[in-house]
Amino acid sequence: MFSRHVTLERTDTSPALAPWVEYHWTLRWDLPPDVAFTSAIVPHPSSTVSVEHGTARRPETAGEAVVVTGVVTHRFDVEVHGRGWVHGVKLRPGAVTALTGHDAKALVDRTVPVREVLPPAVGAGLRELAPDTPSAVATATACAALESLLPAEPDPSYDALLRVIADMLADRSLLRVAEVAERHGIGRRSLERLFARYVGVGPKWVLARYRMHDVVTALDEGYAGPLADLAATFGWFDQAHFGRDFAALVGCPPSAYRRRSQE
Fold it and tell me: For the chain, what is the radius of gyration of the CA atoms?
């Protein structure tokens, strides 16, 4: 039913922005007056810049259409109703700090008006996006605005962070921060400081979040074995701890999620 009223498109960023931006996405919806639905968002350890036009604005952004959302440490629900349009830019972990020098920890679990993070010229460029702008045009406009942030010199700390993040994503056997630190020749305390400044949360949290996404993917693909074995595969040896972490992220126990996926 909702597919008739809601569309989501994903587009690639410009080559110049690729080291800092993962992709762009454009969401449109036009629901009948008596129809609404709740979208459950399972967050990643990255920030988002978004231009939001719709029937309601986030109260914390004082009516500003262009906002920056930091790393969200819990699942959150968004009620979609009426008519609206959003263009989002999903940044790579650490990109806000690398591009602006803004401390990522100050943005954790917050959405703020663009003026609190990005220069006025960037905000002005993003405000050119109007409701129902075609996704390709929206992406090109957003890229033009954000490319003014590109640093003149490389940031070795950000480059090191990206290497660690890529390793966490590529190697599912990485389960402990100590393993990550040893593999990359970085002291554990130094690694924790790097993540705290650029991502806003620690490497332990990021590693656990990626492994929990792996758990969800396995269940979506039809894993039918014991949940305790699945948990242990991705680093949880305490079943109760695993259940709490899963429910906090997904919103229900793993057994209920599996039943729902199978149905």
Answer: 19
Burial class (CB in 10 A: 0-12, 13-18, 19+), 2: exposed
Instruction: Yes or no: say if 65 and 51 are a contact pair by the CB < 8 Å rule.
Output: yes
Classify residue 94 as left (phi > 0), alpha (psi -120 to 50) or beta: left
How far is it, in rounded angstroms, from Cα 227 to Cα 177? Answer: 23
Cα separation, 13 vs 138, in Å, equals 11
| CATH class label, 2-149 | mainly beta
Burial pattern 89-121, b for ≥16 Cβ within 10 A else e, equals bbbbbbbbbbbbebebbebbeebbbbeebbeee
The pLDDT tens digits of the residues spanning 77-89 come to 667 777 889 999 9
Asked if residues 251 and 42 have their Cβ atoms less than 8 Å apart, the reply is no
Supply the pLDDT for residue 192: 96
CB-based contacts of 88, cutoff 8 Å, min separation 6: 24, 25, 26, 27, 48, 49, 50, 51
Q: Where are the domains of the chain?
A: 2-149, 156-262
CB contact at 8 A, 177 and 185: no
Cα pseudo-dihedral 7, 12, 17, 22, rounded to 10: 70
Into which CATH architecture does domain 156-262 fall? Orthogonal Bundle (1.10)
Provide the residue count of the chain. Answer: 263
The model's pLDDT over 147-202, given as tens digits with 9 standing for 90+, comes to 999 999 999 999 999 999 999 988 888 889 999 999 999 999 999 999 999 999 99
